[in-house]
Amino acid sequence: MELLERDLFSKFDPAKSRLRTYLRICVDSFACNAEKAAHRQKRGGNALHVALDFEAAEGELNAGTMDPAAIPSPESLEEFFEKEWVRSLFTLAVADLRTMCETRQKLTAFQIFEKYDLEGEENISYADLAQSFGMPVMDVTNALAWVRREFRRIALERLREICGSEEEFQREARAVFGVTPK
């Protein structure tokens, strides 16, 4: 079927090889491509989906000022600082992402990202988003993949700006994103 769909018979040149050899090469190529596709990781691979719940973080901050005496140990203060630092980095990256999406007229993609990843609603599906935005599920999937990729790029750019060296950047990127950036 693949031979007919891709019109491979028209590409056969009897001066270069026999038909049997040409067909064997086509089948080998097809089998190799099918094997690659079967073992290919999809977008995100085995990465865990982590919702960026900015509203909850803002709620925690607005609940009151932190009483240093209530913190049981210096490690907790360090943990709090680390979480706030990551939150502020992500807040700046989201603001940059929103501006970029507005500039490129991709605000719908940002709104999908906002609804799915930032609002933290656990029961929402791609199908729900597709229905609410009036688009196919595949478009929602593609929009989220693009926006997440841009968010990561922007966040890494912000992180690189505030790090003093490449070594520090690599260490911080591993701590924030769990992987070393390329």
Describe this structure in words.
- The protein is mainly α and 182 residues long.
- It folds into two domains: 2-39; 54-177, no CATH class.
- 67% of the residues lie in helices and 0% in strands.
- It is built from eight helices and no strands.
- It has helices spanning 2-5, 19-39, 54-62, 74-103, 107-118, 126-133, 137-162, 166-177.
- α5 crosses α7 (137-162).
- 11% of the residues are buried.
- The mean pLDDT is 81.
Terminus-to-terminus distance = 40 Å
**Radius of gyration, CA atoms, in whole angstroms:** 24 Å
* Domain count: 2
Class computed from helices, strands and strand pairing? mainly alpha
Q: What is the N-to-C order of secondary-structure elements (H for helix, E for strand)?
A: HHHHHHHH
Basic shape = elongated
What's the number of extended β-strand segments? 0
User: Helix tally?
Assistant: 8
Uncertain runs are none
For the sheet with most strands, the description reads: none
Amount of beta strand = under 5%
What share of the residues lie within helices?
Answer: 55-70%
What's the pLDDT, averaged over the residues?
81
Oligomer: single chain
